[in-house]
Amino acid sequence: MPKIKMKTKAGAKKRFKVTASGRIKVAAAGKRHGMIKRTKKFIRNARGTMVLADQDAKIVKKYMPYL
User: Fold this and answer.
1) Residue 37 Cα distances to 42, 43, 58, angstroms
2) Which residues pair with 18 in a beta bridge?
3) How far is it, in rounded angstroms, from Cα 58 to Cα 22?
């Protein structure tokens, strides 16, 4: 009987990347639309990517078994 492979969640592989040290990198939330109502400080701070907290990263790693 062949070994069954686990499936990666398609939504997770599109949204998250793994750093060399194994942490989860993600884009900032809240920047798709409605930038006029956001403060300049929010837009500046939400630029680029950020690393998830350990509690959240643990959930994401379950969705991506073959990091």
Assistant:
1) 10, 10, 33
2) 24
3) 11
Per the listing, tokens 């403060």 go with 39
Tell me how long the chain is: 67
Alpha-carbon span 40 to 66, nearest angstrom: 38
- Tokens matching residue 50: 């950020």
Whether the Cβ atoms of residue 41 and residue 21 lie closer than 8 Å to each other: no
CA distances from 6 to 31, 47, 64, 65, 67 (A): 33, 34, 9, 7, 12
pTM of the model: 0.81
Q: Check residue 65 and give its pLDDT.
A: 92
**62 neighbors 12 (Cβ within 8 angstroms):** no
- State the Cα–Cα distance between residues 15 and 34, nearest whole angstrom: 21
More confident residue, 33 or 67: 33
Tokens of 12: 């997770």
